[in-house]
UniProtKB/TrEMBL annotation:
TM ranges: 12-37
EC code(s) of this entry: 1.1.1.60
GO terms, molecular function: 2-hydroxy-3-oxopropionate reductase activity; NAD binding; NADP binding
Protein name per the record: 2-hydroxy-3-oxopropionate reductase
Positions of the catalytic residues: K180
Keyword Zinc-finger: no
Lineage top rank: taxon: Bacteria
Length: 302
C-alpha cells in the first residue's frame, strides 16, 4: 500500500480496555488522536472519556470512520469475535484502514485474520504483540513485535509510537506473534531458573537479597533478575502479569515450536511449570509466584 502517515488528529479506535489496553489507549489520546473506545463494560472507559475519548457501543462503531484501530484482547477467540463477530470491527472498518492487534495470540490464526480482513474489507491487519508489562503500557515504552504489510506498518507508525518505544517490523502477518512466543519462552524459562537459584541460596543459608545483589553484578543480570526476583524475595505477587496469562502464552510458545519442528526442551519445561503454577491455585497471582511454588516444592517454608 502507498504510505500516507496516519498522524494526529486522525480518527482512531481502540477495543479492549484491560490493564494494558486502557493504558495504551490513554497514550493514544495524549498523542492527539481523535479516539473512540469500546469494551465489554463501559466502566473501564470513564477515565478515557474524561480525557477526551468517545465511547462506542460496539467494535464496529469504534472502527467506523477510523483510519487506525487498536485491539488488546485476551486470546485468539476474543480477537476473532471482535474482528468478525456481530458488531465486529469488520462491519465498520473502511478500505485502506489499518487495524493493529496488540494481543498475544497464535501466529497461524493471526495470519488468517489478516488475509480475511484484506479480502473482505480491503483493510490491513498488523499483529503487534507487546512486551513491557503494565509499566511499559503506562509509560508508552512498550516493545512492539510487528507482522504484516510493510506499508501499513509505516502508515500506522505514529499510532504505534504513541504506545511503544521499540518498534520492529519482522515480516508478513503472523511474524510478530512468532517473535512474541520466543519472548515469552525466554521470560518463563529464565523465571524458572531464577526461582531455582533463589531456592538453592535459601537452602544453603544465603541471604536472598545479597544473593540477588551479587547476581545482578555479573552475567546472570536480566530483567527477570532485576524485577521478578525482587517480587519472589518479597513475596509481592499481586498481578502485573497473571500466571494464567503466562500459561496461555507458554502454550502458544510450545505450539509454535511444534509447528516449526524445533527441538525445545526448555519450552516444554517452562510450559509444564506454568501449568503446575496455575493448577496450584495461583492462576490469579503474578507469574513470578512461580518462585513460591519452587520454594514450596523444595521444602522451604514461607
Amino acid at each position: 500500500m502507498a504510505v500516507d502517515r496516519i498522524s494526529p488528529p486522525a480518527p482512531a479506535g481502540f477495543v479492549g480496555l484491560g490493564v494494558m489496553g486502557a493504558a495504551m489507549a490513554a497514550n493514544v489520546v495524549k498523542a492527539g488522536f481523535a479516539l473512540a473506545v469500546s469494551n465489554r463494560s463501559r466502566g473501564k472507559s470513564e477515565a478515557l472519556e474524561a480525557a477526551g475519548a468517545r465511547w462506542a457501543t460496539t467494535p464496529a462503531e469504534a472502527a467506523r470512520g477510523a483510519s487506525v484501530i487498536g485491539l488488546c484482547l485476551p486470546d485468539t477467540p476474543d480477537v476473532e469475535a471482535v474482528l468478525f463477530g456481530p458488531g465486529g470491527v469488520a462491519e465498520g472498518v473502511a478500505p485502506g484502514a489499518v487495524v493493529i492487534d496488540f494481543s498475544t495470540i497464535a501466529a497461524a490464526p493471526a495470519a488468517g485474520f489478516a488475509r480475511r480482513l484484506l479480502e473482505e474489507r480491503g483493510a490491513h491487519l498488523l499483529d503487534s504483540p507487546v512486551s513491557g508489562g503494565p509499566a511499559g503500557a503506562r509509560d508508552g515504552t512498550l516493545t512492539c513485535m510487528i507482522g504484516g504489510d510493510a506499508g501499513a506498518f509505516e502508515a500506522a507508525r505514529p499510532f504505534l509510537e504513541a504506545v511503544g518505544k521499540t518498534l520492529t517490523h519482522l515480516g508478513p502477518p503472523g511474524a510478530g506473534q512468532v517473535c512474541k512466543s520466543a519472548n515469552q519462552l525466554m521470560v518463563a524459562a529464565t523465571m524458572q531458573a531464577v526461582a531455582e537459584a533463589l531456592a538453592l541460596g535459601r537452602k544453603a543459608g544465603l541471604d536472598p537479597d545479597l544473593m540477588r545483589q551479587a547476581l545482578l553484578g555479573g552475567s546472570a543480570r536480566s530483567f527477570v533478575m532485576e524485577n521478578h526476583a525482587k517480587r519472589i524475595i518479597e513475596r509481592t505477587f499481586q498481578p502485573g502479569f497473571r500466571a494464567e496469562l503466562m500459561r496461555k502464552d507458554t502454550r502458544l510458545s510450545l505450539a509454535a515450536m511444534r509447528d516449526h519442528g524445533v527441538f525445545a526442551p526448555a519450552t516444554a519445561m517452562a510450559a509444564q511449570m506454568m501449568e503446575a503454577l496455575v493448577n496450584s491455585g495461583r492462576g490469579g497471582l503474578d507469574s513470578s509466584s512461580l518462585g513460591a511454588l519452587v520454594a514450596e516444592l523444595s521444602g522451604l517454608k514461607e
